[in-house]
């Protein structure tokens, strides 16, 4: 990987800088791509090398760039500098920031504000079909996978809900679709920004709400506060039912994502036991 970085810095820097950059250090945090801090003059940039298994993960790099362009102009992301036309890598400005935690004052208010602003961005030409996304993941799961039988049982139970969600056209807007804590950073001026837009597409706004509430492991009171600030009004029983449905959809897609990532890896991101536990929990919830 370092050899590829060196090659890009030596041969392609003219596309995005007026002086040759130098390598600084790798950046951690990403589960899919590889990112590196680079220095060009007084500027610090992030070079992100796109994942080799982008197709298996059903990543649309063109859609990512389109969404990131809108978000960058609205100051909701790390500013976009350059996107390689071949989608091998992406350059953004480095931001001095720390991951958002719910212990930070006004964290939920800031989250709801970012969600509202994000969902008002111009829509892109890419729409997320949740059922189709799941089927793409299924095509990348090996027939001999140890968890395939339990995954098939879960699939049978959630499929009607998944199809129902895919057929909904109300409340559609541009969504980030991966608003986990590691992708939500507070910069040194106090501005909350979202990074890693590779799953961005137009879809149902409650999918982002589901991702946020589950990713931050919000309790009922925190979820209530987020919904009231986002909507903005007290959540109704229908709102709660909608959120629960989209939480189930997110959990299912997340399970499949982790299973795809396990293929051929000696050290998977999530252990077999942990993934099996989540499969059982969601299956039981759907009974």
From TrEMBL:
Which SUPFAM superfamilies does the record match to this protein? Answer: Protein kinase-like (PK-like)
Q: Which CDD domains match?
A: ChoK-like
User: Which residue ranges does the record assign to the Aminoglycoside phosphotransferase domain?
Assistant: 25-246
Gene3D superfamilies assigned to the protein according to its UniProt record, in alphabetical order? 3.90.1200.10, Phosphorylase Kinase, domain 1
By what name is this protein known? Phosphotransferase
Q: Which organism is it from?
A: Microbulbifer elongatus
């Amino acid at each position: 990987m370092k050899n590829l970085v060196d090659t890009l810095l030596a041969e392609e820097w003219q596309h995005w800088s007026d002086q040759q950059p130098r390598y600084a250090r790798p950046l951690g945090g990403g589960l899919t791509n590889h990112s590196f801090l680079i220095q060009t003059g007084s500027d610090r940039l992030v070079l992100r090398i796109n994942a080799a298994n982008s197709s298996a993960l059903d990543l649309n790099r063109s859609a990512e760039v389109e969404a990131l362009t809108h978000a960058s102009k609205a100051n909701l992301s790390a500013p976009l500098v350059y996107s390689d036309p071949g989608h091998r890598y992406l350059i953004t400005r480095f931001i001095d920031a720390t991951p958002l935690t719910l212990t930070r004052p006004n964290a939920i208010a800031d989250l709801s504000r970012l969600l509202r602003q994000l969902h008002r961005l111009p829509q892109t030409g890419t729409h997320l079909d949740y059922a189709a996304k799941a089927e793409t993941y299924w095509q990348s799961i090996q027939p001999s996978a140890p968890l395939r039988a339990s995954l098939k049982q879960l699939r049978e139970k959630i499929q009607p809900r998944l199809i129902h969600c895919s057929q909904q056209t109300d409340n559609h807007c541009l969504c980030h679709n991966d608003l986990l804590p590691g992708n939500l950073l507070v910069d040194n001026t106090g501005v909350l920004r979202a990074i890693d837009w590779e799953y961005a597409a137009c879809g149902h706004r409650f999918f982002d709400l589901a991702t946020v509430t589950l990713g931050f492991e919000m309790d009922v009171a925190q979820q209530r506060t987020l919904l009231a600030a986002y909507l903005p009004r007290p959540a109704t029983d229908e709102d709660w039912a909608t959120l629960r449905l989209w939480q189930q959809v997110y959990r299912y897609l997340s399970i499949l994502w982790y299973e795809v990532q396990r293929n051929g890896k000696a050290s998977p991101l999530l252990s077999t036991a942990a993934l099996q536990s989540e499969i059982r929990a969601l299956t039981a919830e759907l009974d």
